[in-house]
Amino acid sequence: MVKLYCAVVGVAGSAFSVRVDESDTVDDLKKSIKAKKPNDLKDIDADKLELYVAKRDGEWLTEADVKSGVTDITGLVRLEVVRAKLFSVGLSDEVVSEVDAQEEAAGRGPVNVLVVVPMKKRRVDAGVDEERRFFDTRDFPPLLAPPQRGATVESPEAQWEKLLDSLEWKKPRRLCASSGQDWPYQGESELAGHLVEPLALHYTAWYLQNEDKQNHAINLVLSGPGTGKSRMLDQMKGLMCAAAALSNNRKLKERMENAFVFSVTFENGTSATGSLLDRDNPEFDISYRMLYQLSKDKKAWPVFVDKLRMMCSSLPLRIQIVIDILAKLKGIDDVKKMTVILCVDGLQKLVNDGTKSCDFYRVLASVCSFLNSSRAFAVCVCSATVQSPVDLALSDSPQKRVFLVPPPLRGHEVLPTKTRIEKQLVDDMGGHGRALETLQLFLSHYTKDQLEEMDPTWMFEKVCDALRLQYGDIFASPFFQDPYNCREVLAAILSRRRYKLFDRIGRTDMTVDCLRSFGLFRWGAEGHLECAFILLVLLMQKLPKKLGEVDNFDDHLTRTVLVWQRFEQFVAFYRRVKSIAYCETPVALSGFHAGARFGAIQDIIITEPTSRTVVEALRQEDTKSSSDDSTCFTNRDGGVKISDMDTIVINGASASAGDLFMRVQLKVGRQNVQCNEVIQCKLLQTKQKIDEDAYAKERAKAANESSDVFLLVTPAQATEFDLPPRCGLVSANDFGRYFGPFTSRAYRSFLEPPNINTASFHELRRLEGVGDATAAKIIAERTIRRFSNLEDALNRLVPSKKGKTAMILSRMHYDDDEADL
C-alpha cells in the first residue's frame, strides 16, 4: 500500500491522505478520494475529478504550499488515462518519499496529488441579465483564501458582476504604432504556406480533444528589433485566414474568419515592471493584459492592475477564465464554439536568468499550457528578439514549435524615391522596417530639388545619426567599440559561412542569436549572417587600420558609398575591404572569395599579411606573375612594389591584360607560394553569355596559367563549364552571393556616369580627382552653355589637355553620348 497526500485546487486548508495500492489505477484513486471526502464531494461523480501530480520542476509541493490554497496548475502532469497504474505515473511507494517527523511538523511534508473539483453552476440573484445568470464555480471557486479578520470582502458572485459590468468586447489596438503600420503587408503568401500544415494539425487535435503537446504548435516570431515582429502579430488573423484557406478545411476557414484576437504586449503602455504581477500565477501577466483590452474605462495600466486586484481579489483570472468572460459578454453559450488568436509581443522584456523559475520561462509555459488544453480553439503567437531563452524554456518539452521570421521589406514598394541618392539609401536600409521608417521621416522634410542639391555626405551622416537614436543598443554596446570585434563581424558577413543560431562570431563571445537581437542584422534562411549596408559602413569605419591609413580608407569608403564608380573601381574597393577583414588571418581561398564558383582549390589557404590600398597604374601593365620584383608606376608619387603585398592595382585603361592585380601569399598543402591574383571585370552586351572559350581567352591574356589565381567577374549569364584549377567565376547567378550587402553598389557601377551638364556640385566634387575648384568651374561654364561632348569640355576647361584632368573628364557622360547599357 502507498499513502498519497492530496489537496483540492482553489480550497484553503490542510491536505488529506488516502491509502491505495500502487498497482491501482487512476480511476481507483479518484474513487478513493471521493470516498475520503463524502461531504465536500457530494453529488459529484468520481470520474469528473481531475487529478494532477503535485510535482513542479522535479520537486513535490509541500503541505505549507497548499495550506493557503493552490490555484496554479501550470506545468503539472495531468492524470488523464483512467486505466494507468499509479506506479507508472510517478506515484509508486518508492517515488513518494517520506520525511522525518520534524519536517512533517514544520509543514514540509510532500503533497502528491492535486484535485480539481468540477462544481455545479449556481444561480445568481434575480435581476441579472439572462446571459449572465449562470457562472461556473469551478472557474470561480468561492473557497479561496479567507478574508482577514475585520476586512469586508465581496462575495465572488458580486465581484463577478462588477467585473462583467466593466468589460466589453474591443478589437485590439495595433501593436505596431509606427509610421509603417499602414504599408502594404509583404510576404503573406509565403508565411501562410509555412503555417498551413501545423494549423491544420492543431485544429484536428483540438477537435479530437487530444492534448498532446506535439500536436499543438506554439507560433514564435523571432527576429531583431525593427524587423516587423509587431506588424506580423497585427497581421496574424489575416495570415491564419490565408493558411486556413490553403488547408481546404471549410470549418477551419470559417473559424479563423470569425476569430477573436487578443494582442498583449510587455512593451509600450503595458510594459513589464521587472517582476510578475503575481509570483504564484504567471498566467496573470497575460490574462490581466487581455482584460485590459476589454476594459470600458481605459485607465493607465498600473491603475487598471491595482483596481482589478481590489475588485476581483477572490477570482483566479487565468487565461481560460478570460475566454469564458468573453463568451458571456458575447452571449455565446458554448466556449467550444469560439476561436481565439492570442498574440503576445515582447517576451524578451521579462526577467530571464536561464532557469525554469524565471519570469520568461513561467509565462511562456503558461501560454503553452493554455494552448494545449483550451476549451475554445486557440492559436497562440509569441514574439521575442532572441531565440536562446525560448529554446531553453522549451528544451525539455515536446511542444511543437513553428518559427516565423518577418521577411525583409522591398523598400522601393513602400518608400517611393525621386533621386539617385534616395534610391541608394533605400537599398542601404536592407529591408529593415524601422530603418526605412527613419529614412522616410528624414526625406519627408525635403523637396526633390533640395535633395538633388544636398551634399550626399551630409545626408548620409544625418540618416546615420537618426538610426543611432533608433538602434541605441548597437551604438552604445561596448562590443562594437572594439575595432577587432567589428572586423570579426565583417568577416563573418563577407565569408557567407553557414552559421547555426548559437554559433559564436569568429574569435568573439558574441553568438549569432545575440548579434541578431541588436537589430539591422539577420540570420538568413540558409544560415548566412546578413547586415544592412548602412550599418556595414559604420562597422567598416571602425576597422583597425595602420597609421596613416585612416583618412585614405574613409575617403575611399565615402566615394564608394555615395558616388558612382567604374565597375573595376568598385571591385577593387570590395577586394580592399576583404584584405582588412581577413588581415593576418589564414582563410581558405574558397571562403575568401565566398560566392564565386571555382575550379580545384582544395587545400589552398590565403593569408593577407597587411591591409591593402588601391592604386591606379598610369599605363597598361602585364598582370601575369614573374620572378622579378616588379614595380609599376601609379597615380601616386613614385612607384609601388607589387611584392610588398599591400596594394591592389587598377590597370591602365583598355589594358589587354587583367583589370586588377596584386601579389598574394598562398599555402598550397604544406608549401608557401607567392603568385598574382588577377581579377578581370567584364561588361557584355545584353544577352551575351560567358562560355568556356570566352573565359579561356580572358584568362590567357591576364594570368599565368601555371600559378596565378584568376577571377572573372561579370553581370552577364554564363554557360555551364568546368573551371581550371585556381580559377573562379562570378556571373549573374552568383552576383548576390558574392557581393552580399554590396550588391546594389555593384549594379550601380553599370549605370552611365554622372552627366556633366546635370550633376550637382556635390556629385561632381565627390568624383575621384574632381575637387571644389574643378566642380565650381564646370558649373560656371555649363550655365553659359551646355557641354556637348568630351572635346567641347576639354577645350573649355583644360586648354592644355593635362592628362589627369582629361582622363577625369573622359569618364563623364555628355549630351551627345549614347548609353552603353
Automatic annotation (TrEMBL):
Which keywords annotate this record? Secreted
Major localisation? host cell
Boundaries of each Crinkler effector protein N-terminal domain copy?
2-116
Asked if ATP-binding is a keyword of the record, the answer is no
Pfam families of this UniProt entry? Answer: Crinkler, HHH_3
Q: Which domain of life is it from?
A: Eukaryota
Q: Name one GO cellular component term.
A: host cell
The record's subcellular location field reads: Host cell; Secreted
For this entry, the protein name equals CRN112c
Q: Which organism is it from?
A: Phytophthora sojae
